[in-house]
Amino acid sequence: MENTYRNFFLLLILFVWSMAEASLAQEVSPKTEAHENGIDQDPDEAAVKNLVERFLAAMGNGDLEAIEPMFLPKATIGGARFREGKWNTFTTTIEDYLASKNENHSPYTEPVSNYTIHISEGQLAFVKADAILYREGKAQSQNMDYFTLLKDGDSWKFLSAAYTAKPILVK
């Protein structure tokens, strides 16, 4: 008799758990699908994504004057590039990064294929952007960009920007 009660109790727990999972899936799925289709996108999420895309376009075009106002003072930028069999990293402030850039910029594009955006309290955003960097129409590197943004008044600004870049090997 004790085993019967225990088995019944275990089945009841499994049933309640499965119902909770099904309920959660129903609540999340429509939002996720609408989100992926751009329907009912959160205004903060849209603004953050727009800023990231403007930043990547400005970087690709070498438009340094457009970049600086996108960042908070003393924000950081850094990256890790895989070259000649090893990872090379750098970190600096955005001011020093922009001051180090020269006029011999080679234009590129970096279209993002997938975004993951987390926003906390409408004030802090964390963005992961998966992209391929192209120069002269040729894929150069697989880039994973990570951005941390803070709301500054009514607008979003970068607190940090970092990436990894791994060359795409052409056979």
Automatic annotation (TrEMBL):
Signal peptide: 1-25
Keyword Signal: yes
Superkingdom assignment: Bacteria
Stored InterPro entries: FrzH/put_lumazine-bd, NTF2-like_dom_sf
Stored Pfam families: Lumazine_bd_2 (PF12893)
UniProt entry keywords in alphabetical sequence: Signal
Protein name, entry field: Nuclear transport factor 2 family protein
